[in-house]
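Re: folding output
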Amino acid sequence: MLVKVNRAAASALLTLLLLVGIAPSSHAQLGITRSKGQQLLDGIVVKVDNQIVLQSDVENIYLQEVARAEGKALPPDLKCKILQSLVLNKLMLARAEVDSVTVTDQQVNGEVDRRMAYFVQQIGSEKRMEEQYNKPIKTLKEDLRPQIKDQLTQQEMQRTITGKVAVTPREVSQYFARIPQDSLPYFSTEVEVGQIIIPAQINEQAKQAAIAKLNDIRGQVQAGGDFATFAKEFSQDPGSAIEGGYLGAFKRGELVPEYEAASMKLEPGQLSPVVQSQFGFHLIQFIERKGNTYSTRHILLKPETGTSDAGEAAKTLTKLRRQIQSDSISFAKAAKDNSSDKITGGNGGLLQNREDGGTRLPLDKLDPAIFFTIDTMKVGNITPPMPYRTDDGKDGMRILWLKSSTAPHQANLQQDYQKIAAAALNEKKNKALDEWFLKNRGTVYLEIAPEYAQCKVLDVAER
């Protein structure tokens, strides 16, 4: 049968399933606890074309919300809202298949590796991860991959629907005027913080040791040794090491230039010389070409940086700090030209608020390392160079700049335009999604289990 879909009741929950940055408190968050045989016993509660929603999908998310609530009362219709969100996500997946909205294997593999690395970090080690789930890491990745692909496809579908939506200053002002005065939010102290990061240089002795080690492995492989075995033992790329160094198939332009250039010179089975990239030093084994793609294995070594190697980075930052303080260069230009963090470097050096895309950050939500540094600083001051470690574990130095500090206040257009604009844009995007769902609700087959009929998932809510 063709049915109607409730859009408005679930608009705030569209991204509920995108489990990014969540501690692995349960097996369900990895999406890897059920085999296909077990799913048959689980119970299908909704069908959307060839997409299904399982009873456990609803229950797992509900339990996560209960854990987050920490004893606070939850909405009595929470399970219905979760189901509505799941149905809407499945509708987007169904339409994505029809409209040929896809994501690349590289995107999926990258997110699987990132997500798995996060869970491994939270649990403590790959060994403990495998013991907890009673599966090897490779199998866990394979189990996780379909879920990640669906999530990325949902995001891509949502971008195709709302990607061109924008708001004008007039629309922002009109949105703000509709908010009742007694409902205006109260913002705590907020700050704008800039940073310039310069990585420590690789110690020449460590660099030569890595090259020598890879050349030794190369010789052993050429003498009959197994590349995959060496990769599992020595490679410092956790994503591929467990798979014998296998990276998978990629198209031209998808891997860093140095790696690709070296790979393209090889024939199946051949080994490259030692190759240096931004990630470290590689020994590459070419596997095969298939059309426009090629596949390889590699062993990655990342030489450690010594404390003395941070000295050059500190000298450069000290010089930049003096130039900024004497107004001979702006902090924004210094960050753009020198910072190894390209995200903040392209944003005038300023850290970004992920919630609204602005540059003002709540003081009480800052990273502790930044909070305790700027808490006693005056606006305009710049710290001396300080040790820093990047997200991927590289050592370096950085300076921090306190650009501004805003006292606690009730929301207003003058001080909070970016936040209000982000909220207005979100509302407009939701309206665009409403229109899309209304237009496409009759293009899919949808069936819901009787026990969830009270959720009114099949009704269209008027705004």
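--- second protein (sequence, then structure) ---
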Amino acid sequence: MSQTDSPLGTAPVGKLVLQLAIPAMLAQFVNILYSVVDRMYVGHIAGAGDAALAGVGVCAPVVTMITAIGALIGFGGGPLMSIRMGRRDMDGARQIITNSFYLLLALSVLATVPLLIFKRQILFTFGCSELLWDYAQAYFTTYVSGTVFALLSYGLNQITMSQGFSGTAMRSVMLGAAVNIALDPVFIFALHMGVRGAALATVLSQACSTVYILRFLMSDRAAVRITRQPVNFGWMRRIVQVGLSPALIIALDNVLLISINVMLRKYGGADSDMLIACAAIMQSFMLVITMPLGGITAGTQSILGYNYGACDEKRVMKAFRCIVLLCLVFCGIMFLLAQTVSGAFVKIFTKDPAYIDMAAYMIRTYSLGVLGLTIQYPFVDGMTGMGLVKWGLTFSMLRKGIFLVSVFVLPPIFGATAVMFSEPLSDVVSAVFSGCAAMFLLPKLVAKQCCK
């Protein structure tokens, strides 16, 4: 594909949104299997399933933090690259993708070492107890040791989607998920590795995804290849600046996960371990909503970034409307499923009636405000895709702030499980502000920026 015939600037917008959003959404559905399958098998370890599940659950913030680092580069380099493609600056696009690759390698080392050194302090901060320690540290140590593959697979897949190759990114994720599903029962049960085997299966699956996506980005099939380029600290700084907003958003999700576990531990009394295990199941269900939704908005960032770079205001606004409509359909379906089949979903992880009832209640409550994400995700990710990071960050911080305040206010008054109402409260309130911004602020910002 040459720099002058990209379908990002010529194909019908509605068709283009579907072509890029659907594979990205499906890729994230498949990507969910990394955590859901791990937890499903771990929950069925004979004689230790519930404790092992809770131990893996307290590691969830670590996985989220590593994802945030990958997002820092993937969501920073990807939009910058697509904007350069829209401006026909292919040399600049090649410098961006190669320096993004350098950053991912460097950050993988910088993240792995301190995480392994301070793992005990980290895990107990996340809500771990002595009962859960053996399971949590086994999963944590193995998963963190493979950080380089987690960062490269996540960051480079996002950059691939920013070139308009959502299908390629989807195949990379599907390969990793297939390997994970195949290896989990072998390592966990056949080789008696338990939670360590679950983490090892995930690391190896991410390594397979990394190899696949690197082969693509270093071949002639990519619109912009990873090539030999000098280290450019100017581009690196710009990549980090643009990626900081989505990275902070994901990192704050990490803080929210930790805060939920902390409040369940503090106010859950003798049931705190059970509540944390149920929260891990609830978080698995929420991933089924938020990751595919993020796939829709991340997969279509290339449309917004490319046409923003090409100063095509009409295509930008039409794409935004199509993205919101697609998100509305998806969120509507997922809301209905959350309210009707949550119990069946929980039974995948545990057969204990008390756990099933509590986790199903958590899912139904936590997902009450899902329709509010129809506006929040497209607005925040769309602004980031066009390089307007301060606006995306502002409205994302609003949602996270409401959530965090609710987490610490509700349990002391209404009990530990009231923490589940923090999510719908923040979703609904932030949707009102994001909706107003989308109607009145976004058109003015796009017109102003595109015509500079």
